[in-house]
Amino acid sequence: MDFDYDLFVLGAGSGGVRASRMSASYGAKVAVAESMLLGGTCVNVGCVPKKLFVYGSHFHEEFQDAKNYGWDVPPSRFDWPTLRDNKTNEIKRLNGIYNNLLDNAGVTLYDAHARLLDAHTVQVGEQTVTARYILIATGGWPVMPEIPGIEHAISSNEAFYLPDFPKQVTVIGGGYIAVEFAGIFAGLGAKTTLLYRGELFLRGFDDSIRAFVKEEIEKKGVELLFETEATHIHKQEDGSLRLDLTSGGTLDADTVLCATGRSPKTQGIGLEDAGVALGANGEVLINDSYQTNVDNIDAIGDVTDRIQLTPVAIEEAMCLSSNLFTDQPKRQMDYQNIATAVFCQPNIGTVGLTEAEAALEHAGDMDIYESQFKPMKHTLSGRDERTLLKMIVCRSTDRVLGIHMVGPDSGEIVQGLAVAMVAGATKAQFDATVGIHPTAAEEFVTLRSVSRQA
């Protein structure tokens, strides 16, 4: 059977774009459909604009810290439209770059919604096309909790385009998106409260990190309310919002941001017509080769609801395109030792196992190294902010199992250490490495005293 395309991709996010480009470079005839903006979540309403906002929210501290370094900084004023609109212009620039990348690779781009009619047929806009292989890379979408009055709240998508900057914000959620936005709003000058139903936020991260970040975030003036939920969001006559809480109290806010998770975008794209099996959360079910239960249909990235990270989707795309369109040995991504960062304030960088995860296999055979200190910058600034480093080592093999950090530039530092982790570095090899002085990163190669054994 002759097909219009060798590969048709639904979704031009990070994974979909990379799969399209790489497949085309291997000689495949490729098309991709995107009904929203090129670049997906990361470029438009995720990693990129979020980090730009984090940068913006740091400046008030920089101005304060400058005084003890001899700088006379005049009174400053934050202008929300400037940051918001400059961010939007940068996103538009990146959208154009993605368009050019696809065009230069010879990929056909459909600026339209795509829906599967069967395992090989796609309706895209007013057209119908066929493809030998189909890739589902439609990503995820924010989930809003079922609270009366939830229509008055926003998700992280809308947070990037607020018409006016709020004076008082309540963030609902305890994941990294909630924690990051709490820091952004507080840093830009809003009175900020973070509301989380659990005992402590950032579930899944190392417990030492979670407890340490709690203390540091409270120092920044963010009010943290744990084991508390909103039961109703009321809109007041003056346009402000009031939240009823399970504690019996109330909270007032100009803006309520719900960051309570994301779900796969699998509705309305015809997966049922193609016979593609979905999981309980609506995720596309795949095997280790990214293949669905339908032989010619694959899926990568957030739509599979596994590890929701842009670099993961990109690496999955690299593996898949090679496996489909080259004769090279089959590639499979290694999901161990994936480094990640949380751009809360201060930042978190982490790679490898948490202490709780390591204990499942290495209980009684672990050395835990921890170090806390004031960053050198703040010895003069006087700011009450500390850094935490943690290393988990298997005592019998000397292999480093996990590295965790809270502090400035944690993501930049841990990215380098992730290379060592992937290479199977031992504590002895860290000890044999000469540090760069004076840096925070050198602490990882000067840890000598075991904090505790576990």
Written account of the structure:
- Helices cover 31% and strands 23% of the residues.
- It is α/β, with parallel strands linked by helices and 454 residues long.
- It has three domains: 5-141 and 263-325, FAD/NAD(P)-binding domain; 150-260, FAD/NAD(P)-binding domain, CATH 3.50.50.60; 340-453, FAD/NAD-linked reductase, C-terminal dimerisation domain (Enolase-like, domain 1), CATH 3.30.390.30.
- The strands form five sheets. Strands 1, 2, 3, 4, 5, 6 and 16 form a seven-stranded mixed beta sheet that branches. A six-stranded antiparallel beta sheet has the order 17-18-21-20-19-22, with helices on both faces. Strands 10-9-8-14 form a four-stranded parallel beta sheet, covered by helices on one side.
- Helix 1 (14-25) runs parallel beside helix 9 (310-325), helix 3 runs antiparallel to helix 4 and helix 3 packs across helix 6.
- The mean pLDDT is 97.
Question: Keyphrases for this structure?
Answer:
FAD/NAD(P)-binding domain; Enolase-like, domain 1; globular; seven-stranded mixed beta sheet; alpha/beta; 3 domains; single chain; 454 residues; six-stranded antiparallel beta sheet
